[in-house]
Amino acid sequence: MSTGTIELHDLVVATLVVVGVVLVVGLTVIGVVMWRYKIPPRGVVAMFGALFYLLLPIDVLPEALLGPLGLVDDTGVIAVVGIWTYKLIKARQRLVEGGVVKPRR
Questions:
Q1: How many other C-beta atoms are found inside a 10 Å radius of the C-beta of residue 22?
Q2: Exposed end of the chain (fewer CB within 10 Å): N or C?
């Protein structure tokens, strides 16, 4: 084996480990938020979509070309989904407090 092959193998392994860790952490966060705050299905779908976009190698601003600046679109997607999910949680809480919707158990 040549040195370039070993380096490529190490890069692939490191990338797979990072993707695996991000996936496990992301799924754990989504699970805890779903359980704790009783997120509506559309919020759960948005969170899974944001996690998928974060792990997807194709971006609007690719990190491979732009370095750390390429993380801006990933951060923006996570922020927008986080804010939208927070608003869903608050709207549901107001509906429960107003007696319009029954609380989940």
A1: 13
A2: C
* Residue 80 pLDDT: 95
The pLDDT tens digits for 11-21 are 888 888 998 99
Per-domain boundaries in the chain: 3-97
pLDDT in tens, 44-85: 899 999 999 888 877 887 877 888 888 888 899 999 999 999
Distance CA 66, CA 63 (A): 5
d(CA 99, CA 47): 27
Cβ atoms of 39 and 88 within 8 Å: the answer is yes
Query: What is the separation, in whole angstroms, between the first and last Cα of the chain?
Result: 59
